[in-house]
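re: that chain from earlier
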Amino acid sequence: MKEANKKTGRVVFITGESSGFGLEMAKLFLANGDTVCGLSNQPFSMEGIYHQFGDISEEEDDKKAIDNVLAKYGHIDILINNAGFGIFGPVEETPSEDAKKQVMVSFFGAFLMAKAVLPSMRKQGYGKIINTSSIGGVIPLPFQSFYSASKAAMDMLFDALRPEVYPYHIQICSIKPGDAKTNFTASRKADRVKEDSPYKKAFDHCLASVAHDEQSGIAPIKIAKKVLSVSKRKRMPYSKSVGAKDRFLAGIYHLLPKRMRNYMLYQVYAK
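^ sequence. v structure.
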């Protein structure tokens, strides 16, 4: 057996491991010698991965999945909150149900998974939680407002959680990818606005621009490698951005006065 495939003893739980970032993470952690478990709402099978089918926005599904892994392996060392999706459209014209679903998956899904795993991590006296956030949680993206809001809310929740679990040696890290080439682009819910919508021209332009940037963006394997690297650190960073362009934009964005930030976003996305 190759050195890289020797068992590490770590049990890693990844949500949304059936595609995109999650699938690349699952492959890397498996090759690293970790025991890999996952939960997603897609049928999925891969040798060496303990997959469970469920909806992360449902508390019962999350608790059952965590309990099953604990019963099977005895402990969970790392939780990676990765599952997610995105909706695209003007705030004014976004159906309430779509907005609620976005928040339920991106925000409540991560919260419910953490809630399910924290008792065991607290009792064992250690654990790591890594969240796949987004540059959109740092920069408010027009026409992706609910996606940005859900990621920003997730980051704030776990920032508040960090000192609560500090005495139990539980660490939390937020990974913030920029534009990435995944099936996220094709699967994004982007119902076309009506022809007479005042937002139509800006919406169509923004959607095409974002899709282009994503399809020429970072390869998912780079995000997966960053997550694996962070997971091995004795002390994880609180936050880690992936993608030089997006790190630069986030830095510039926070240096600008708020009025100038708003105008910049208008010019880039909503004009």
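The chain has nine helices and seven strands.
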